[in-house]
Each structure stands twice: as structure tokens, then as C-alpha cells.
Amino acid sequence: MLDSVPCLTRLTAQLRRFPGIGEKTAQRLAFFVLKQPRAQVAQLAQALLDVKDKVVFCSRCFHVTEQDPCPFCRAPERDDGLLCVVEQSQDLLAIERGGGYRGRYHVLHGVLSPLDGVGPAELNIPQLVQRVEQGEVRELIVATNFTMEGEATALYLRRLLQRPGLRLTRLAHGVPTGGNLEYLDESTLSGAMARRYEL
Amino acid sequence: MLDSVPCLTRLTAQLRRFPGIGEKTAQRLAFFVLKQPRAQVAQLAQALLDVKDKVVFCSRCFHVTEQDPCPFCRAPERDDGLLCVVEQSQDLLAIERGGGYRGRYHVLHGVLSPLDGVGPAELNIPQLVQRVEQGEVRELIVATNFTMEGEATALYLRRLLQRPGLRLTRLAHGVPTGGNLEYLDESTLSGAMARRYEL
Lengths: 199, 199
What we know:
Two copies of one chain form a homodimer.
Chain A: H1 6-16, H2 23-35, H3 38-54, E1 56-57, E2 64-65, H4 71-74, E3 79-86, H5 89-98, E4 103-107, H6 125-133, E5 139-142, H7 148-161, E6 167-170, H8 186-194
Parallel strand pairs in A: 3-4, 3-5, 5-6
Antiparallel strand pairs in A: 1-2
Helix pairs in contact in A: 1-2
């Protein structure tokens, strides 16, 4: 229906590719762009290209960074004995927001999914094994998500990395802060009941 | 928290400016961009700039277009005697999607809002008066939204444009197709009752 304005059609189609952006929203955003000052739009266009041109993956932990190794790998005050494995960079950022963790990270960039052709090699797991084998790591915290795939990946890592002197841990699993029992899923709730602790 | 990756922070901030895009979504979109092929991102960046560089407002009806006058003003088969006034280009497109209208358009790009400094001049209303005064228009269909502001603008236009030989109309107002009386607002429902018609 925007046939008469190919530019807007093209931009709408491009925005439509974003996750969670439907046809209507894409069109609304395209019209918003039209009303922005050109300098503003140019900044957005540049920011898009910069992300592709300047952001790389840290060669040690695979977190996104503009400087390799990344700040988390470089920081001298972080404990090399603690290694936290996460599915994606956003999870690392969430843990940092939470605060209280002062170890290193390893970002898998996904979960095991043999049907989709995602095996250990696609997840930087060989590099994880190598880091563990250098012997500095005392504790490996497997912080993959508590989803089917995240749990399966955690179990795989446990089997792969079990060795004397290495503690393998997983984040605590239970009712979240502000959690309302009424609305909580059954799996969390039954698990939290089973793992109840002394008050 | 993305401090360590200024590019991503910048892109997130830029995306955050879009209507309906919050901090979380902006971050998710920024990471999505990071995972796209560069060519794809370059296309999006180009599409953004193209919209600013190639799209203009039609000098006759003010619809967005790449060619002035716009296709709706150029089409020789459209009836010059019918003029439909809409708030924005998206409304014009919605009416075209609906089909059945073969007249011309006039896009206000807003509604009257004295408190925000939006008066007739900001809404291409002098140009609308001029079009009406050329005498070709038999019927002016005021298709502003059925909101407080849209209704006020419609009333203003009625007062301004009333003249002998010109029919001023407004879109029918009532229960929409698929409308569920239970969930319909009171104003629509009481109005639809008052304007009920013979079955």
C-alpha cells in the first residue's frame, strides 16, 4: 500500500526483519524516521554500521567488545579461579548488573541444539575446555538459562568438564525476588519446595 | 552496563528514541544487529537515509511521495469533486486499503492543538481552503480520527469551510466490523444506539 513511496516500503521491509517488529510497527517506525531531523537519522545509520565495523568478540571469553581482550578479561582485580559460563553476552551484562560476581566469564553464544546443527564447536566449548585445562579455574559456574536447552547444555558441560579439583556449580534455582507463588510455574515451585532451606 | 562497548551503547540509545521501544527492546535489537551480516545492516542504514533524502510531501495534498505531485493527485481517473481530509499519511493508506474511495486527499499532518502551538497554518489548512475555493470540490469528507482532537478539528473545518454548494461529510461512526458490544466503549455504543437505522 506504500507502493507509491518505494523508500518507505523498503525501510518498512528492513525494520520488519527485527525480532518482535510486525508490519504495523515497522510502518509506524518508518513514518517516525521520516519525521526525524536528517542528522538524527544519519546518526542512527552510522551507529548501525559502527556496531558491525567496530564490535568484535573477545578472543578469550567471546564477550562482545571493541578492544580485545575485553574489559572483563583485562581487569587485573578479577579472580581467575572463578569462571562463569553464560549463553550470551546479554546474560553476562545481566549478571554484572546484579553485582557481586568478581570472576571471569565465558560466553557460549547459544545452547547445544544438535537438530539445528549447533554442537560444542559452534559454542566455543573447545576453548572453554582449554581454559579449564590451564588449571587456574577452581570453580566453573554454569549460568546457562533454566530452559530445556540451557539445562541440557549444563548437563553436557558437567559431563565434559568434571575433573579433580574443579568445583562445578549452577546458579540457585527457585522463587525469584518479588515472585508471586500464585503465578509461578509448577516446575519452579515444586523444585523450590524440594530444595527448601532452614529459616 | 554496555559501557565497555560504546558502539552498542550508542546504537541502543538511538533505537531507544523510537516510539514504543524501551531500554530492553532497544538492547535486544542492538544485539540482533550485531548478529546480522554487514550487507544487511548497510541496507538498513541506506534505507533510513533514503527515506530522509528521497521522500517529500506532495505540494498539492501533502501526502508523502517520491514524485511531486503524488500518485493520488496525478491519477486522472480520480474524482476532483471529492476531497477527503485525513490527519496523517497513514490514514490515507488505511482508506486506500479499505478501497471504494476514488476521490482526492488532503493530509493535515496533525490535529489542532492550540496548547501545543498547532494552529491552522501548521496543518496545511490555508492550502485546504484554497483547494476548496477553486470550486471543483463538491464534497469534503472530513476523515479525522474520532478522538477528542480529531472531532475538534472536524468541527473547526466545518465552521471554516461551510459554503453554498459544498457538502461537508464525516465518516460513519458506530460499531466496527467484528465489534463486540461487551468490549466496546460507552461513547461508541450510546452513539450507535442514537443513530440506529432500519434493518
